[in-house]
């Protein structure tokens, strides 16, 4: 009998029974108040007169009036670069002990995002909330005695002057509490291996020694790891190696595009739980079954604002216009896309994280990630967001009974002078490209009126090329690296498309 697991499960259940929901809007007001008080004597706080904001009758309104929007390039150029020149108290008191490296989806150069001690505590508390939410899922007591495979970036952080640098998953894993280390796999030694392929090889070699009950990581890289383990041990599915695997905690991107290909690696269903941990903070967790929506964490050092995701408010580089309106938590509407802004205990202020979200349940404050501001395809008025693209690709999977875990799209003027959308679909299944193009075009026309209008005017048609899904991973390896927080870009401009198409030719994938 799983006695230890029963004790842990009962403690989680007890904790949840005494946890009250609280008033979300009041929690957010208190978070903002705490942020402003803490940072009022920093260079940023003095420049934007936080003291005066704190004395105003409506702190939230005054805050939104006085502080401009910042994307990474702007806040780094104006403020964060000063940390690397030896300054303290720039946008947050003191100096951050860590910087999270995030190449994101845009190239080799990494962003360097400050991670303070307060942010590490915020991430820890969010993790505890996630564990507590497990009481809402029908998991047996023995699940709480199994090991957890956390597939992130290397925990071998790089020392740079007075701070350390690494991806946020590596920083978090290097700070796991001592009591959790016996559950954590692949363990400290393997987790420090920097090269993705070498790390996964070691995981495969040691896989049978572990009793894995849960997986955690970005879907694309999780799939590759599972395939490697299955291939190494010459079995049909991962449950032949880890029979007690019951939970997969997904993060970083929407899971749905990977669902079909991921499930093909399993011997039996697992509970998929979505999370929203970004380089800038732990923002949301899925706290109940039967949904892919995640609950915003509103009392944990992050203040949220929302900008309507409309073409007139989005610049070509994915940033937002200075006059874009902001919507408070109290005034958001369900099923409307918003650009997410955050202010945090790491000294990010009205920061454009780059993601778009929608509220699926306003009362529960549940959201879903719908895409990236840079993945907004609007060259000829089609106004396609990533969630519309994902939905259309899923329709193809259902219609043709195939798996398409990866794709990329770009708008390009062809030799006839007309604009086309060029789609590259990653699939190992065989379907005629022309048939996929017709079905994809029809799905997008049905789902998006702007796309339908564009197809009748400036957008001539759709061209589809199917390729090996592994080519997407090799492209990432060439341009950034494998594993960790790296995500495949979904939308390319013409310059990037040319490089992508040359890469495919070099790989012999296209003529």
From TrEMBL:
> GO CC terms for this protein?
cytoplasm
- Give all residue intervals belonging to the GH3 middle domain: 296-362
Which molecular-function annotations from GO does this UniProt entry contain? Answer: acid-amino acid ligase activity
InterPro entries reported for this sequence:
GH3, GH3_C, GH3_M
Residue ranges annotated for the GH3 C-terminal domain, each copy included: 390-495
Q: What is this protein called?
A: GH3 auxin-responsive promoter family protein
């Amino acid at each position: 009998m799983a006695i230890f697991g029963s004790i842990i499960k009962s403690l989680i259940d007890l904790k949840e029974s005494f946890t009250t929901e609280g008033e979300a809007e009041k929690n957010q007001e208190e978070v903002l108040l705490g942020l402003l008080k803490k940072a009022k004597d920093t260079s940023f706080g003095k420049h934007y007169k936080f003291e005066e904001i704190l004395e105003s009758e409506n702190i939230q309104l005054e805050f939104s009036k006085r502080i401009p929007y910042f994307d990474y390039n702007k806040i780094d150029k104006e403020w964060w670069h000063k940390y690397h020149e030896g300054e303290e108290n720039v946008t947050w008191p003191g100096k951050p002990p860590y910087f999270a490296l995030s190449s994101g989806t845009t190239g080799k150069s990494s962003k360097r995002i400050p991670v303070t001690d307060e942010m590490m505590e915020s991430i820890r508390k969010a993790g505890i909330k996630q564990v507590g939410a497990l009481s809402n899922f029908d998991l047996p007591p023995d699940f709480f005695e199994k090991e957890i495979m956390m597939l992130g970036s290397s925990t071998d952080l790089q020392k740079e002057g007075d701070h350390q640098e690494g991806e946020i998953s590596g920083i978090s894993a290097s700070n796991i509490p001592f009591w959790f280390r016996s559950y954590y796999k692949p363990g400290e030694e393997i987790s420090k291996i920097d090269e993705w392929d070498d790390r996964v090889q070691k995981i495969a070699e040691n896989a049978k020694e572990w009793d894995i009950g849960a997986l955690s990581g970005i879907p694309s890289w999780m799939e590759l790891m599972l395939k490697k383990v299955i291939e190494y041990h010459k079995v049909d599915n991962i449950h032949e190696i880890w029979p007690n695997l019951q939970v997969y905690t997904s993060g970083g991107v929407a899971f749905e595009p990977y669902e079909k290909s991921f499930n093909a690696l399993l011997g039996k269903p697992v509970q998929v739980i979505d999370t929203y941990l970004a380089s800038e903070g732990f923002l949301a967790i899925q706290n109940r079954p039967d949904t892919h929506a995640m609950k915003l964490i509103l009392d944990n050092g992050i203040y949220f604002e929302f900008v309507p995701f409309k073409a007139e408010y989005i610049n070509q580089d994915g940033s937002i216009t200075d006059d874009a309106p902001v919507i408070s938590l109290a005034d958001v509407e369900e099923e409307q896309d918003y650009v997410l802004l955050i202010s945090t205990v790491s000294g990010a202020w009205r920061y454009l994280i780059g993601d778009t979200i929608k509220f699926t349940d306003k009362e529960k404050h549940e959201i879903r990630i719908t895409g990236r501001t840079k993945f907004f395809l609007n060259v000829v008025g089609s106004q396609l967001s990533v969630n519309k693209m994902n939905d259309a690709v899923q329709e193809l999977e259902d219609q043709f009974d195939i798996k398409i875990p990866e794709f990329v799209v770009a708008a390009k003027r062809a030799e006839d002078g007309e604009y086309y959308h060029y789609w590259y679909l990653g699939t190992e299944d065989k379907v005629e490209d022309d048939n996929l193009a017709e079905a994809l075009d029809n799905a997008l026309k049905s789902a998006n009126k702007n796309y339908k209008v564009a197809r009748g005017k400036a957008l001539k048609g759709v061209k589809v090329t199917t390729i090996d899904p592994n080519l997407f991973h090799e492209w990432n390896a060439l341009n950034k690296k494998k594993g960790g927080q790296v995500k495949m870009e979904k939308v390319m401009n013409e310059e990037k498309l040319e490089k992508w198409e040359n890469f495919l030719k070099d790989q012999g994938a296209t003529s």
